[in-house]
Design goal:
- The complex is a heterodimer of chains A (368) and B (523).
- By secondary structure, chain A is mainly α.
- Chain A has a single domain, classed as Amino acid/polyamine transporter I, CATH 1.20.1740.
- Chain A has 13 helices and two strands, in the order ααααααααααββααα.
- Chain A has a two-stranded antiparallel sheet.
- In chain A, helix 3 runs antiparallel to helix 4, helix 3 crosses helix 13 and helix 5 crosses helix 11.
- The two termini of chain A are 17 Å apart.
- In chain A, 54% of the residues are buried.
- Chain B starts with a helix and ends in a 55-residue tail after the last strand.
- The longest helix of chain B has 39 residues.
- The radius of gyration of chain B is 30 Å and the shape is elongated.
- Chain B is built from 17 helices and twelve strands.
- Chain B folds into three domains: 113 residues, no CATH class; 115 residues, no CATH class; 169 residues, no CATH class.
- Classes of the chains: A mainly alpha (368), B alpha+beta (523).
- The interface between A and B is medium-sized, with 37 and 28 residues.
- Chain B: It comes from Brevibacillus parabrevis.
- Chain B: Keywords: Membrane, Transmembrane, Transmembrane helix.
- Chain B: This is Spore germination protein.
- Chain B: It holds the Pfam family GerA.
């Protein structure tokens, strides 16, 4: 096995949760509000359905092929040659998506560091993530646990502090245009929720596998609840202006004022958000590195870390000339790719495996 | 690199053989003739003016020789209990040595030896050795006594409430201090010698039944692996057995306090006592145990919990405050409240340096003062503190070299770094402060966050003898939060922390919460 470490189901949840919410929290309310208007509180529910579906597919695949990641499962299901082609495509997708995530991060940070080149910002993050990936899944799990409260507590604190300014009246009229707008708004978030399929890389290293399903489901539910709350808070605060505000959570932070002393906390939000981005990018990075090593039948993945890190930085520039272009890509193209590779394709593999009755040979040994 | 270390190994092997030939020929049996033995020992101790050879006759007939090192042996006792007794006795020629021991010499600790090697060891440890003509065995008397420091209050780990005894340089005083607190025979103390020349005595202490046997075996193996010429302080051992030598964080706890050692032994850790130093090594350790003081357990639990959180806060301040200041001044003005920003800008007006340079200057000066304060002769202490107050203080501000807020930041950071109860842990955090300042100076808050992330990654990577360094926060162990996030009262500390492998989980009886309904006067 490439990965020798073990993590707990709780650690898996704490890795995946920031993966789901960190990008979504920043631009999510704006994206969802564009289609759903004041019904955006319902959108996370629709989009989380694909998350539950992805969890189901990953768990079922893992039940048939325990101890394997999606790359290895592909090999076992489809045979060597087709799976090699699919594996390479899959890795390309992972690279591209990681690149886009890094670019989103860099463009966001560049708002604060106007004179720092984008390449420096993204390379700095990749270097940091490379250390985490080098440490393996155990280090990833532990850092996620340490940072989890640092990610959640400031968010709750901020919501508490803007509480007096909230106007629940912005919610009305509820569903005056039917359910359709709220479903339309769910298109982009589909991609974010399907990312939960990355548990496919973590399920084989779980120390307590029976709890894995519960942890994964709770993670998606938690992400859905978080997004609903964030949507509601931003809606209550900004009302009709929400579709025009690029990063609503930043403007929420601007509202915060404690004793007329702590004001303009946007930079603090940026600092907190870096943690989420770090865990998200590390997880994608780890999946890419581990997947590549498994695809190429390597015996250890560490030598791949720096080359792939370099590629991710490159992919964060290729084909993305500007911030506007990035916005267009992330609205439709990336969610489509994500939904395809994290939900549709594994689903097809699962169906094929069921139809052909394929199971891992090691299944005879009772697992976990 | 490979060939270099190979050469080093070869050199060490040949060197070891040579030194063994010189000092301690392995298993040379004692000869029958006293003259042969005497010649052999005199050759070995040639040019050693501190070794005393005293020839005499037992009962006026049998020739005998007492050998000891001046200053390591209780001479009066040797004269009274051994020399005078033996000189005045009458002895049949072929009487066995044991009879001599049993009947004549009133010394409690004595040992028979048959090789020159054993004699050398006994002499070096201060035990006088008696050689007798026509005997192939020698006797060592437990009459070692040398000048040693009294048991004093530990200097580096002070407490208001708690025992005031500290370890001393003498190994057997230290083991006695442990045994006086933990009286069970389950407290084991394995003795070994480390160091080709110093032959330092090292004791591995643990409580059987509580400790994980694999942990003891691992430590024993790591200690056994050490091949070094001398061990002068436990730091040598620490560096030779730790898991991550490149890390700035200490992976083994050092303490001068017997109560800290006993507390850790009772939690299933092992202690390594080294002769010649009052600092005892305790492993495995975690980051949080470095932030705990023994007094936390003696004060009321609410007070201890509060003080622990104060300590965590100031540990973070000592790590981050200068870099936060630099980041705010350089990049994020808007986060500083306007009135404060104006006064800060006013005080920075005359300062010629950018904030980063200013912070570095002051922090380095502070570190220099601290180091000088530790090292300087006591007579010049006053001078340094006066000059120090000038350098980091009003004079520097008035000269326009630094701003007043910077002085305050440095002062708070300095105080914060001394709030960490274990000095070595404080050094690690003070060291990491400098790269953090550079990160803050180049990338602002982002740099600080990246620095924190890298630090946490590093802390998640290292282990101390198999125990993750960030236990119980990463990995989360809720049962151990009672002794890290808070200091739960003793009646709640029912379970021991889990380190590695098997452990004795239950520490004490359940339901011991006191109250008016329990005990007291029968109503």
């Amino acid at each position: 096995m490439l990965e020798t470490g073990k993590i707990s189901a709780l650690q898996m949840g704490m890795i995946i949760y920031p993966v789901l919410v960190s990008t979504a929290m920043l631009g999510g309310p704006n994206v969802m509000a564009q289609a759903a208007r004041n019904d955006l509180w319902l959108t996370p529910f629709w989009s989380s359905l694909i998350g539950f579906l992805s969890v189901f597919i990953a768990i079922q695949l893992h039940k048939r092929f325990p101890g394997m990641t999606i790359i290895e499962q592909g090999k076992a299901i489809a045979g060597t040659v087709p799976s090699a082609i699919m594996g390479l495509l899959y890795l390309l997708v992972l690279l591209q998506v990681s690149g886009v995530i890094v670019r989103e991060y860099a463009d966001f940070i560049a708002i604060f560091l106007k004179e720092t080149p984008l390449s420096v910002i993204s390379s700095a993050l990749i270097v940091v993530c490379a250390f985490a990936v080098k440490g393996g899944v155990e280090v990833l799990g532990r850092t996620a646990q340490v940072f989890f409260p640092m990610f959640i507590v400031p968010l709750l604190l901020m919501i508490g502090l803007v509480f007096p300014a909230l106007d629940p009246g912005n919610l009305f009229p509820v569903l005056d245009r039917g359910l359709l707008p709220s479903i339309k708004g769910a298109i982009t978030p589909l991609g974010w929720y399907s990312e939960v399929f990355l548990i496919s890389y973590l399920l084989p290293v779980l120390a307590n596998r029976p709890q894995g399903t519960k942890a994964a489901v709770w993670t998606v539910a938690g992400a859905m609840i978080t997004m609903t709350i964030v949507n509601l808070v931003t809606l209550f605060l900004m009302g009709d202006a929400l579709p025009n505000i690029l990063f609503p959570i930043m403007d929420t932070a601007r509202y915060v004022s404690i004793a007329d002393f702590f004001e303009n906390m946007e930079s603090a939000v940026m600092a907190i958000w870096v943690i989420g981005a770090f865990i998200k990018v590390s997880m994608f990075y780890y999946a890419t590195v581990l997947g590549t090593a498994q695809c190429l039948n390597l015996t250890c993945y560490q030598p791949l870390i720096w080359p792939i890190g370099f590629l991710i930085v490159l992919f964060s520039f290729w084909g993305i000339p500007s911030f506007a272009e990035l916005g267009a890509i992330t609205l439709i193209a990336i969610p489509a790719i994500l939904a395809w590779s994290f939900c549709f394709w594994p689903g097809c593999l699962l169906l094929y495996a069921i139809v052909r009755g394929k199971r891992s040979k090691a299944k005879e040994v009772p697992s976990g | 690199m490979g060939s270099l270390s190979e050469n080093a190994r070869k050199w060490w092997r040949s060197h070891k053989q040579k030194t063994q030939q010189q000092t301690a020929p392995s298993h040379t049996p004692l000869q029958k003739q006293l003259a042969d033995n005497e010649q052999r020992l005199r050759d070995l101790y040639a040019n050693c003016s501190d070794v005393v050879f005293r020839s005499f006759r037992i009962g006026g007939t049998i020739r005998a020789l007492a050998i000891y090192i001046d200053g390591l042996t209780n001479q009066e006792e040797l004269e009274r209990s051994v020399l005078s007794v033996l000189m005045q006795t009458k002895l049949p020629k072929d009487s066995p040595l044991t009879k001599l021991l049993d009947n004549l010499v009133p010394v409690t600790k004595s040992r028979e030896m048959s090789t020159v090697e054993q004699c050398l060891e006994a002499i070096a440890n201060g035990n006088p050795v008696l050689l007798i003509d026509q005997q192939e065995r020698a006797i060592a008397f437990g009459l070692a006594r040398w000048e040693k420091r009294q048991i004093e209050e530990p200097v580096a780990e002070g407490v208001v409430r708690g025992p005031r005894e500290g370890f001393t340089e003498s190994l057997h005083v230290n083991t006695a201090l442990l045994r006086r607190q933990i009286k069970t025979p389950a407290l084991k103390m394995e003795q070994m010698q480390i160091g080709g020349y110093t032959q330092t005595q090292v004791v591995l202490a643990y409580i059987e039944g509580i400790v994980d046997e694999d942990l003891v075996a691992e430590v024993r193996a790591r200690l056994g692996r050490i091949e070094i010429d001398g061990v002068l302080e436990s730091g040598y051992i620490e560096e030779l057995i730790e898991d991550h030598p490149a890390s700035p964080f200490p992976q083994i706890l050092t303490t001068e306090r017997p109560d800290v050692t006993c507390g850790n032994l009772l939690e299933g850790r092992i202690a390594i006592l080294v002769d010649g130093t009052p600092f005892v090594l305790i492993a495995p350790t975690t980051l949080f145990s470095l932030l705990q003081s023994s007094e936390d357990y003696y004060q009321r639990s609410l007070a201890s919990t509060t003080i622990r959180w104060l300590r965590y806060l100031f540990t973070a301040i000592s790590f981050l405050l200068p870099s936060l200041y630099v980041a705010l001044i350089t990049f994020h003005h808007e986060m500083v409240p306007t009135s404060l920003l104006i006064s800060m800008a006013a005080s920075r007006e005359a300062v010629p340096f950018p904030a980063l340079v200013e912070a570095l200057l002051m922090e380095i000066t502070f570190e220099a003062l601290r180091e000088a304060g530790v090292r300087l002769p006591k007579q010049v202490g006053a001078a340094v503190s006066i000059v120090g107050a000038l350098v980091i203080g009003q004079a520097a501000v008035q000269a326009g070299l630094v701003s007043a807020p910077m002085v305050i930041v440095v002062a708070i950071t300095g105080i914060a770094s001394f709030m960490i109860p274990h000095y070595i842990a404080g050094i690690a955090i003070r060291l990491l402060r400098f790269p953090m300042m550079f990160l803050a100076g180049s990338l602002g808050l982002l740099g600080i966050m990246l620095g924190i992330i890298v630090t946490v990654i590093h802390l998640s990577t290292i282990r101390s003898l198999g125990v993750p360094y960030l236990t119980p926060v990463g990995p989360i162990k809720v049962a151990e939060w009672k002794d890290t996030l808070v200091r739960a009262p003793w009646w709640m500390m029912n379970t021991r922390p889990h380190l590695t492998g098997d452990y004795q989980k239950i520490r004490q009886g359940a339901n011991q919460k006191p109250g008016p309904k329990k005990g007291g006067d029968p109503a």
